[in-house]
Amino acid sequence: xxxxxxxxxxxxxxxxLCMFILDKLxxxxxxxxxxxxxxxxxxxxxxxxxxILLAILENQKYIYYIKYxxxxxxxxxxxxxxxxxxICRRNDKIKFSNTxxxxxxxxxFYSMLLAIYEPGISISLRFGxxxxxxxxxxxxxxxxxxxxxxxxxxxxxLDRKFVNKxxxxxxxxxxxxxxxxxxxxxxxxxxxxYSIISELVTLLVFNYCMGLFKKL
Length: 216
What we know:
By secondary structure, the protein is mainly α. The chain is 72% helix and 5% strand. Strands 1-2 form a two-stranded antiparallel ribbon. The longest helix is centred in the N-terminal third of the chain and has 27 residues.
């Protein structure tokens, strides 16, 4: 029972954290980071509002309209991770424009995913409607490629000059959480039906990065 309450607390916490991040973005972030980050945070909020609706809605016909939003993390997690790395790495040779390429690639990935595989719906007495994909292991393994790359880059950056070392260490923690959380979910031993713990950790790190702009 405690796990169920904690699940909804985390969902609400993520939504409120997103609002907090949006406020920081609007006040402090440079324009090139602000615009794309706002869209990604709105995607996060859209997903988590959807998860709450999946738990409280009773009429299944509404579920068919919102079920695709559950998989928005395939777009926003890679983008947010790269933005965090870009901010903490502090290297002019790293182009922020790569973020647009990452978003484009994973938007295509997301579109193909939903075009080829119709998400299935199951009912949980604890979490409401659960949205799943057939052959999900293929997409999960493809999805964790970006966190793995960012993890490797962050480890290599630890001994470089001018990097924000606390931020780089937090990136390492966030990417490890994402990789483990998705693998645990893949093998069916996760406490929750979605990777909400790793996303909360990632957003906390993102919030830390937004606070860095205040100090500039």
